[in-house]
Amino acid sequence: IRCWSNIPFITMPLSRAHGKPFAHRSELKHAKRIVVKLGSAVVTRGDECGLALGRLASIVEQVSMLQNQGREMMIVTSGAVAFGKQRLRHEILLSQSVRQALHSGQSQLKDMAIPVLEARACAAAGQSGLMALYEAMFTQYSICAAQILVTNLDFHDEQKRRNLNGTLHELLRMNIVPIINTNDAVVPPPEPNSDLQGVNVISVKDNDSLAARLAVEMKTDLLIVLSDVEGLFDSPPGSDDAKLIDIFYPGDQQSVTFGTKSRVGMGGMEAKVKAALWALQGGTSVVIANGTHPKISGHVITDIVEGKKVGTFFSEVKPAGPTVEQQAEMARAGGRTLAALQPEQRAEIIYRLADLLTDQREDILLANKKDLQEAENKGRLALPLLKRLSLSTSKLNSLAIGLRQIAASSQDSVGRVIRRTRIAKDLDLEQVTVPIGVLLVIFESRPDCLPQVSALAIASGNGLLLKGGKEAAHSNQILHHLTQEALSIHGVRDAVQLVNTREEVEDLCRLDKLIDLIIPRGSSQLVRNIQKAAKGIPVMGHSEGICHVYVDADASVEKVTRIIRDSKCEYPAACNALETLLIHRDLLRTPLFDQIIDMLRVEQVKIHAGPKFASYLTFSPSEVKSLRTEYGDLECCIEVVDSVQEAVEHIHKYGSSHTDVIITENEKTAEFFLQHVDSACVFWNASTRFSDGYRFGLGAEVGISTSRIHARGPVGIEGLLTTKWLLRGDNHVVSDFSEHGSMKYLHESLPLPQRNAS
């Protein structure tokens, strides 16, 4: 722990031999020495007179945060000309107003004209004020800043270069942030086409080239170039087909069309790319990003250093396979082809996948064994997750049966007419089912999820992106290979893609133009993280599975222990396992209550007492910390309620709207419970474990949804479909239906076509 002005902060153990730039974004968190280049468009206001103070304060805060982590931060800044222009305009207006007031009277003030201001004079007037502003801002974080002004000539003089290098190293050693700028008060006009002077020298004609030169001279790990665009596009930003380039490789310049330069400043995107490639060649990693967007500018620098997908990352290492963006586009194209197949052809693919699961059983189990061994050796997975990771012959057989159910039930899922209306004579409207588009399914420690979800996506004609956990890498790889083998029989291999890149889940959730629905399968923390990270993409799922079983006063002795045992002990790690047991007060200290407690002890279930239950006992189990807990193991909470009404209120207050059960022989009480509990699944005298797509006869499920729109409960094929409207007319126009028109609306319901009986 280091201290500066009595404020402690943690120093990160950062060290890296400079030589090669980082190959992947995820490695940027190891960057120790960082240059942040602030373009003129970032630093200045929209009117180009004065500084964007709020934006600048946010940047200083981020740089200070990274400096206080033990990194060595340097800033290459623009803004002196804009700040000076603001000051000089103010002085000229003031001077003119005084002179004209003395000679011409107040009536002439409105005719004053401001002369064109020369850039060098503006820079001279603005440089001291700009630095004073930086000093004031950094002082708020107990950080000292120092100003350095350079010109191109300083880099051609060997002695000056050594002096500059020594000064910068000494400032960094003293934990001071150098603020570097071109000395625009004396710098000559830039020579055209003089960005690059050979392989080893870059001409300093703007702050982009200055930042690149400094980054290489100082052996910097990372250069962050902030501008007024999101990054590098394959065509000018704003054009219809422009796409942001996530990773740019040397040699890709031919695939890029550059637009005009920014509204202010000396450089444009072409200058930035040349400078970035020169820095990359010198061993410095580069990211070009937007520093002006109000939603991201407050954390753009820290996001880049954390390895998040922001802007364009320059890398010398091309990945072996397609990028995740390319995979999403392949999945969309493959999904559309898949949706156009005949239902029988989609069913054939799923039947083939079911056969492959049993035919290739030994290879699948061998791959799964590798995953299990690696997980056990690393010791990072809890027992419930290890159970989910494990595959067996019986699991594979159950998977194959479920897939065949999906194939059999999917014959008329896509293109089914669900409503027909005659709008007017010869004008008929149909509402038909269609795929949602591209699904992103993110799952942890559940390799059996891959063929299930793939089959449902195939049956519903959706493209699919799969992102599995690293702990199941071997299992997922072979299961995906078998899925693509099955898809190949009808030429739609690309419809299901497995994301194997280093893509972070948060970055995947930002692909709102490529992904239509995200379905998380995993821990409640995973689901919450995805719901938080999703930017403009709907998320279907549940964050928790806090399932209740309420034992009513009229419960059957024979049914109670069987249902509770199955709900809690059959598979405690499942999201549909019992977590809270509600007991009617009249059952306390009865033989039935003793049987429940004895059964739970025999099954080695750890009991946590709710507040009311604990108050009835002299010596009680440990009192529950929270009544809203998903244990995911052989643990449960027991609480006492006075009535079915109180049980319903408890479930609404502490439950997660997943699955809740009543055990009773009183039909009236049961119906009250069924009608009033607002959960996705509500059962009477049945285990919570029936909340499952396979057990519901859906074949399988992509997950269990607790949301209130689109799909709820176990989500099978129907939940992966949406609708579109087809209108068939004959020269119909709306004006014919006006008050004086020749046609009238009929709005007659028409019979639906017969569904396929098979």
Mass-distribution shape: globular
Count the DSSP helices.
23
Q: Radius of gyration over alpha carbons?
A: 33 Å
User: What's the CATH topology name of the largest domain?
Assistant: Carbamate kinase
Assign the CATH superfamily of the largest domain: Acetylglutamate kinase-like
Question: Which CATH-level-2 architecture of the largest domain?
Answer: 3-Layer(aba) Sandwich
Number of E-state strands:
26
Give the total of domains: 3
Q: How helical, in percent, are the residues?
A: 25-40%
Mean pLDDT: 86
Please summarize the sheet with the most strands.
8 strands, mixed
How would you characterize the overall build of this protein?
Residues 32-290 form the Aspartate/glutamate/uridylate kinase domain. It comes from Edolisoma coerulescens. Pathway: Amino-acid biosynthesis; L-proline biosynthesis; L-glutamate 5-semialdehyde from L-glutamate: step 2/2; Amino-acid biosynthesis; L-proline biosynthesis; L-glutamate 5-semialdehyde from L-glutamate: step 1/2. Residues 1-13, 190-204 and 262-267 have low confidence and may be disordered. A hairpin with a 2-residue loop joins strand 11 (417-424) and strand 12 (427-435). With 758 residues, the chain is an alpha/beta fold. The strands form six sheets. It has an eight-stranded mixed β-sheet, sandwiched between helices. A six-stranded parallel β-sheet has the order 19-20-18-17-21-22. The protein has a four-stranded antiparallel β-sheet with strand order 25-12-11-26, with no helix packed on it. The longest helix is centred in the first third of the chain and has 24 residues, at 80-103. The protein has three domains: 25-95 and 117-186 and 203-314, Carbamate kinase; 325-533, 3-Layer(aba) Sandwich (Aldehyde Dehydrogenase, Chain A, domain 1); 548-701, Aldehyde Dehydrogenase, Chain A, domain 2, CATH 3.40.309.10.
